[in-house]
Each structure stands twice: as C-alpha cells, then as structure tokens.
Amino acid sequence: MNVLILYFSGTGNTKAVAEEFYHALILRDYTVEVHSMEEKFNPASYPYDFLVVGFPKYYEYPVLYALDYLDHNLKKREQIIPTLAYCTQAGHSLTDFSGLERLLRKKNHRLITSKSFSYANNLLIFSMFGSTTPEVLKENKRILKSQIGPQLDGFFLGKESKERVVWSRSILYHITAVVFTKLMPIAGMKYTSSEECIGCKICACNCPRKNIKMVQNKPVFGRKCIFCMRCINACPVNAILYNGKKIAQYLEKGE
Fold it and tell me: Which coenzyme or cofactor does it need (predicted)?
C-alpha cells in the first residue's frame, strides 16, 4: 500500500514531524513518498492509497498557503482516500480542521485523523511570543514521537480521531486567519536587512513565495509574505531585520 506525505514547513518543525511519520510508516512496511508543497511535484502522478498532510497553523487555523496548494493540486479520486492531517504549533490548543475537511471531501478524500503537535515557537518577531526552551522542545519531541504510532494504528483501522472546536470558535478562527493572511503582505513590508548582509541570496532563494528580490546585492521584500520566518532563520549572519530591529534566530536553525 502506498502512502503520500505532503507538507509545508517554514523553519523545519513540520518537516521534522513528516520525517517521523515517514520512518514510522516504513517500519510498518508501507511504500512512502514525502514531498514538500514547494516542490514541482504533481500528487496525481503518484498512485497513493493513503494521504498524510502537514502544515503549521496561524491563529488556530491551518496556514492558508497550504490549503490553497491542496485545493489546486489534489485531484478528485474515484475511490475514497483516507487522510491524516497534522499541524505544528508552539502551544497546546486545538486546531480548526473543518475547512480542510470540507476541501478534502470535494476531492473524495476522507479525513480520518487530525492532530496538533506541540513543537516550538519560531515566530520571534513579536515580543508576546517567547522562545521555546531546549528542555520544552526536547519534551515536545518525546511526546510527539510517542503519539505518532498510536495515531497511525487508529488511522489504518479507520477509527476517526479528529480535533473539534465549537462552531462559534470555528467561524472566529477562519475569519481571523483570512484577515491576518491579507494583512501579512503589508506587515511583511517591514522586513529589511542590516549592513551586515553579505549578499549571499539565501533568503531570496529559499523564500517559498519568491517574495524576496536582490537589488544591488541586498534583499528587497515584496507584498507576498506569509511570515514563515525562513528568511530570518536561514540568514548565516542574522542580517534580516523586522521593523528595524534584529530578531533572535530560531533555536532549531538548520533542521
């Protein structure tokens, strides 16, 4: 049986969880392919029997960039495809997967399992969101590794295990996600670079939205930012500024 894993990851958290799923599935003798949503990969080209999708969440809702990808790239299948979805987060709150579930239903994919995994905070540009200590990150990794096996066991048995939020919160989360996603490009214009910038182009080459252009060997930020934090984290000299201030780089740099 074939399993396809599709994920979007800003700084490595969601990718790391995708790799945990991959290893757990290989141990169960499944044939597995793993692809980032940024790759030029056509999901219809792979004859998968099960689908795993992963992404970070913004405001208790899956990042809209990932939902748009699935809407445009998943084809409607003749047979129902059991699907497992996960989000990575800094905290411990529930995620509203209802929008994703409706999208999958249109593609004849059935959401069996949805789960939020606590990992670490990479959104360090706002003082209200503190960094995750190494001790907390280590514990979060231990917990998620212990949860993946049971999640897969129930998933392959067809036992539904889905996170739910009350309808009022679902509406609030969706509206908030849409509004803030539309505001992100404006807020993203506050990114600049310091004199320490060495013009290496890593930020421009790695931006998932191709939002960064090099002008006179310096990065210039456009209006398509989704605040994935990859540019700040990837800079070898930490030269990316937000609102004129240097930001601490994410502790999982390079993962």
Answer: [4Fe-4S] cluster
196 inside domain: yes
Backbone angles phi, psi at 120, to 5 degrees: -160, 160
> In sequence order, what are the residues at sequence separation of 6 or more whose Cβ sits closer than 8 angstroms to the Cβ of residue 37?
6, 7, 8, 55, 65, 66, 69, 73
- Tens of pLDDT along 153-174? 999 999 999 999 888 888 988 8
The answer to which of 18-27, 133-142, 156-165, 167-176 has the lowest mean pLDDT is 167-176
Tell me, yes or no, whether 17 lies in a domain. Answer: yes
Per-residue confidence at 254, pLDDT binned at 50, 70, 90? Answer: very low
Whether the CB-CB separation of 203 and 239 falls below 8 Å is answered with: no
Q: Which residue has the tokens 């191709």?
A: 210
Contact 181, 212 (CB under 8 A): no
Q: Are residues 196 and 238 in the same domain?
A: yes
253 has a pLDDT exceeding 60? no
Count of structural domains within the chain: 2
Q: Which amino acid does the sequence have at 111?
A: L
Q: Looking at 153-203, which runs of residues are DSSP E strands?
A: 191-193
State whether residue 98 is helix, strand or coil.
Answer: helix
Say if 183 falls within a structural domain: no
**What's the domain range around 151?**
2-165
Find the CATH number of the domain harbouring 155: 3.40.50.360
